[in-house]
# Entry
Amino acid sequence: MQDQKAYQKLVESLNQYSYQYYVLDNPTISDPQYDALYQQLLRIEDEHPEWILSESPSQRVGDQPLKEFQTVRHAVAMYSLDNAFEDDELKTFLKRIEEKLPEVNKLTFSAEPKMDGLAINIRYENGQLVQATTRGDGQVGEDVTHNIRPIHSVPLKLFGNNWPEVVEVRGEVFMSKSAFTQLNQQQQEAGGKIFANPRNAAAGSLRQLDSKIAAKRHLSFYLYGWGELSEDWQLPQYYSEMIDQMVEWGLPANPQSEIISGLEGMFAYYEKIQAKRPDLSYEIDGIVYKLNEIKLQQQLGFTARAPRWAIARKFPAEEVWTKLLDIEVQVGRTGAITPVARLEPVSVGGVIVSNATLHNMDEIKRKDVRIGDAVIVRRAGDVIPEVVGPVLAQRPEKTQLFEMPQQCPECGSDVVKELDKAAFRCTGGLVCPAQRKRALHHFVSRKAMDIQGLGDKLIDQLVDQGWVKHPDDFYHLTVEQLATLERMAEKSAQNVVSGIQASLETTLAKFIYSLGIPEVGEVTAKNLANHFKSLEAIQQAEFEELITLNDVGGVVAEHIVNFFKEPHNESVIQGLLDAGMHWPTPAAATLVEDSPFANKVMVLTGTLSEMSRPEAKALLEAQGAKITGSVSAKTDYVVAGEKAGSKLTKAKALGVAVLTESEWLAMMPQQD
Ligand code: JCF
# Structure
């Protein structure tokens, strides 16, 4: 008996730890500590299967896949939301409510980001999660309990004891941006289906009959409403109070939600969230405004489709239709051949798009995209627009299949498909003008040699003239030669040549970066320079030593070794040295491993006085720190400059170590 009590207590503690970790993002014990307790739990459950509680963390994922989905009629209909695509529609919405509620003089609304996921109803009876259903047609949905139970932030048993006998929690199931990226990477490696966006990925995961699959895909949940509630349950005055109540029962709600009033309040909140949108860890497609007083909601009621007291103000569309005019291929710096869609120009999320990536041949086949198709184009944030797929209902009679050219369109060299990879590659190497041009663009770019006045167009001209084949050729250009080019005045020619000459004085890190070794970005280049100190040492570095560096894995190390083995690269490097390229020996920085910031997760915030934030970031990265944009319980240090704001507040709330700029600099290893 005593033992069974201990078991129950263990379940409760583990659920608390998991809540602190997954919902509050503020773990109170370490991962190994949690694992040890979890193993203990499994041992007890193994000995006493009759004790197993349905809310035990071991009961999140089922053993057996289902045979099929059951349909379930909702106890209370699940509605949609009406949309407003323009400010004017929001005005109309507000005016209509004001007309219907003339006696109210100040309407307040609860505002929150509109999650781009799927609506789910989660039913609790006597505090236990008993069923989860999709929205379906609003009346009848599908039972997806087995795929909701694995979501760690959804409690299997409600906390406290003041819940009604029956409570249905409604909200959105979604996949975070990072879980989505990770999933697609795994899918790509496994040759599986690539999901077009997190919403589709979340939908696909819920549709699995085997809960083990959904469990691996890391879904999340935010609540935003409720369905059936026991009759004896007294609703509070405000919607937001009921949400807070459900949060007390252990359910996650969006922390961005706010109470606002009037049209100005709505506009201000919209602007604020739109500005934050790229930093949010999940995708949203607008803002939801809900009248906050429950009595007023009840007075307004519902249309056939949606509540009259709520509206979704949508962001400009990021997925639109257009016509696929042609598919061309682009040759990248390392020879990778990417199919590019030429589109009838169309506005996507406020930007005119006429080209979009099709990723690779496998994707074109899988999506069955054909030249002439109507296609859906998607632009998410700052990423390159992509073709999501064809609109089959709109497929014209005559379409044309795309074939990968067998010869590189730029240099005529053979195109080969890489073993085990989706990528096709031009075998021309630096013979290929496209690869050459891109390598040269990279060489002069801002973070590399930063040569002013040498734009992409001019580089293309120089390559086409045959004057520049490799980076070292830049240093032999003369003012007279350049001045013979069309639209190049003597003065501009002079500027270009001075820009080129000025770049001879550089740093080892920039030099390494500018060589364009595959997979060697700015940070890796810095790590190489700091570790090896000299070009010769990097050239002779062995695989085994390279992989001991921060940030350098097997693939990168192999690229580095191969790059310096290539005689052609050696002669370009020699050419650059002969032209007079030089740099100071990197200071004998302390070994990264000895730095107090090695492998630490850090956030920089506020205004620094000694240097800019990018400089501070570079300094810390050279020490092996990882700099992130937002503070969480995983942050090791926050460096707070002047006027630090919300990040500092959050760091303090979470108990993360905060350093002033001078405290931080004092901790930096002294360089000699
Ligand atoms: O994504 C949301 N934040 C959200 C979606 C909020 C709501 O109150 C919703 C919703 C979808 C449908 N309400 C309904 C009825």
About this structure: The first strand starts at residue 71 and ends at 73. The mean pLDDT is 91.
